[in-house]
Each structure stands twice: as structure tokens, then as C-alpha cells.
Amino acid sequence: MRGLRILLTVVVILGVLFVVVDRVAVYFAQDEAAGKVQTSENLASAPDVSIKGFPFLTQVASGELDDVELGIKTYEATTANTSGGGTSTIRIDDLKADMKDVKFSNGYSSATAASATGSASIAYDQLLKAAKSQPTDIFTGVTAQVVNLSDGGDGKIKVDVKISVGGRETTYPVLSTVTVDGDTVKVHADNLPKLVVDLADSRIRSITDFQQTIDQLPGGVKLASVQAAKNSVEIKVKGSNVRLAG
Fold this sequence. Notes:
Layout: H1 2-41, E1 48-51, H2 56-62, E2 64-80, E3 87-105, E4 110-123, H3 124-127, E5 136-139, E6 142-153, E7 156-165, E8 168-181, E9 184-189, H4 194-199, H5 201-208, E10 210-213, E11 222-228, E12 232-245
Antiparallel strand pairs: 1-2, 2-3, 3-4, 4-12, 5-6, 6-7, 7-8, 8-9, 9-10, 11-12
InterPro entries: DUF2993 (IPR021373)
Protein name: DUF2993 domain-containing protein
Organism: Streptomyces hokutonensis
């Protein structure tokens, strides 16, 4: 009996040591992975990396991790917009991605996930960059411009459009639907003020309706869906063969 107790004690101690070593290894691996992602994506600060599953060491031995969660506080995406042409940047906030079946290669210097799903947000002031925010002629003596974006409730965006007629300015709130088409976020006015409709629907829609292409998200993830929320536009992302680093 004494020998059995000693054996059980040794087994427990070895088990505890294995867990400690495994968790320490995870900590260092997460820190190393965060550094590589920061470098590969040119981030201002290191992202949060959380490696799920236990034990970690056996996953490393197989060259594949079951589940890795990535969090990037802010990301400056290079974009193109069809309203003004050219390229610019737009800030993506709170990008979170859950990576599945992450395989290592080149001595663990690079990693690719079989699939990824996640979420992020685009503040209204960032999306406003895609709109025609400068006064634009509709008719002689009549101009229009988008001056603000905000939550319109029920998943809609409220687009404030300022109309200037003969020097008199009036701001109209226009409820708009926001959708995703490929890698482009589109904002489309559901209705227009009667005065505007009387002037010309198509001409004012060239101001109220706009879109923003976002085709360079981290790792190659793509836009999946979008919805207006209280302080921002909330987006869902997804991807396959997503490159984490290397």
C-alpha cells in the first residue's frame, strides 16, 4: 500500500508539472504569435492571441492548433471608394476572429487557418469618409451634402443630408439600409424628402447613396454581413485559408 501511495503521488506531481509546463508554453507561444501578426499586418500594437485547447504541447507536436482567437483593437485598412475615387484608409475597430485548424509551416514561422469567423465595427465618422461630404450641385443654385451618419434604429443608418436652395439651408434625416456586396459596404436611402423627390430622385441619390470597398482585412478575411448599431456599423467577417503570419 505504501508503494502504491508513493506511485500515485508521483503520478499526481508529474501531472501537475505537465500542466504547468503546458500553460507556460502556451503563454510564450501566444506572445510569439502576437509579435508575428503585428509585424505581418503592420499593426501599431500587438494583437491579443489566445490559443485554445488542452494540451497545447501535443497540438504543437502535430503541427496544427485546433482553435486560435485573434483580437485587434484598431486596424487601418487601405480602401477604395467609388464616390470620390482613389484610395484612402478606414479604421476598423475591435476586430475579433476565431481561427480553426491552424497549421504551421517553415519551422513555425508562418501559420494558416482552414477557416475563420469573426466580427468588427466601423465607426460612423469613418464610414462618412465614403460619402460626398462636400456640397455638390444638383441644379443651378441647389447643392446637397451628407453632413452626418448615425443610428437610425431597427438596423438602419440615419443619413443627414443638408440641402441648400438659394442660400437657405435645410437638413433632412434620411433612413438608409446598409448591406454588404462582396467586399463593399453599401448605403442606400429607403426614402427621400418630398422636396428632394420633386427636384430629382436620381440626382439626390448620387449624394445620399454611397459605398465603401474594404478588401484588405487582416489575413484575407472577407466581409460577410453588416448592420447599423448604436455607435457604429457592426460587421461580420469570414474566410478560408486565412494567413495569420509569415
